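In response to the reviewer comment on reproducibility (Comment 2.3), we provide here a single inverse folding case reported in full, input and output, so that an independent group could reproduce the run without further information from us. The structure tokens appear first.
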């Protein structure tokens, strides 16, 4: 019986939230982990990123080529807008049988296009749809895998502690699940920002949350859920807006007008832009509060209005 080969060396492209968590957890297992991020070439961000790499116990590569050299598993964990370009740049560097795991939140068409670049060099492209927040589950975050190498990849990834399940041997189906789910998940975030920020300014937010808890009990409306959902946009607004634009492309490709997806992207981007304009820094507060954010942005609008 064939036993999947254990993965000893991992390369991670993109050292943001997800890439950093995966890198740290894999290195803690004793695996050789190299990381590369375009911010390594930024004068302002280079030193903090190198410090983060040292804290994670991983090697910060000087180039994409150095990062991918000898890695058995390559994880692409970049922004939605960069995913295809990263696959294009990595393709000439990849060797035969290297496993290229694309965990980016992009449309099925983008995954298929990325696969074309990667598999020209006989590397094995596997799409992964990440089905929950990475910080909550870390390396064990649920993933659906797609493509002709999905079953083999799932076996190898589970051996290193990842919660990967083969979903389809066709590229794009797993990503379609992720994209369609995001209409609800990220749409809910956008709706909550719009609803609660307005309710706060009317002094009606407690009654709104009370009513939501009565209509949809057990979700945490009067607990941590509002802070959690709005914090995701406050921390990653531009990235989530880009992902929702990918969702819009996914819907358009099957003839569905992406009215809600584009509206969610606009709301997420708008919040990020407002926060940047007012220099509202999340790291300046100990615990995120959507009420504090709403009040700060409201005061700013009144001063400028």
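Designed residues, in position order:
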């Amino acid at each position: 019986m064939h036993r999947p080969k254990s993965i000893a060396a991992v390369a991670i492209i993109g050292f943001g939230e997800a890439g950093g968590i995966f890198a740290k957890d894999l290195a803690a297992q004793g695996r050789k982990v190299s990381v590369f991020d375009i911010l390594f070439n930024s004068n302002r961000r280079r030193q903090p990123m190198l410090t983060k790499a040292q804290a994670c116990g991983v090697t910060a590569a000087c180039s994409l080529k150095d990062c991918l050299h000898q890695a058995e598993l390559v994880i692409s964990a970049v922004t939605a807008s960069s995913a295809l370009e990263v696959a294009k740049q990595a393709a000439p560097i990849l060797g035969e049988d290297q496993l290229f795991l694309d965990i980016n939140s992009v449309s099925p068409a983008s995954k298929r296009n990325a696969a074309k670049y990667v598999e020209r060099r006989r590397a094995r492209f596997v799409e992964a749809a990440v089905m929950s927040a990475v910080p909550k589950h870390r390396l064990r975050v649920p993933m659906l895998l797609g493509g002709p190498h999905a079953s083999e990849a799932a076996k190898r990834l589970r051996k290193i502690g990842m919660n990967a399940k083969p979903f389809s041997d066709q590229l794009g189906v797993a990503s379609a699940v992720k994209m369609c789910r995001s209409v609800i998940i990220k749409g809910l975030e956008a709706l909550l920002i719009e609803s609660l920020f307005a309710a706060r300014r009317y002094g009606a937010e407690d009654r709104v949350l009370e009513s939501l808890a009565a209509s949809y009990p057990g979700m945490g409306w009067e607990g941590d859920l509002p802070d959690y959902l709005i914090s995701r946009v406050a921390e990653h607004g531009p990235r989530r807006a880009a992902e929702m634009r990918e969702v819009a492309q996914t819907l358009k490709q099957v003839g569905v007008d992406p009215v809600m997806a584009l509206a969610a992207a606009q709301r997420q981007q708008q919040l990020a832009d407002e926060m940047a304009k007012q220099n509202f820094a999340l790291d300046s507060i100990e615990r995120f509060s959507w009420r504090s954010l709403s009040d700060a942005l409201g005061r700013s609008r009144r001063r400028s209005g």
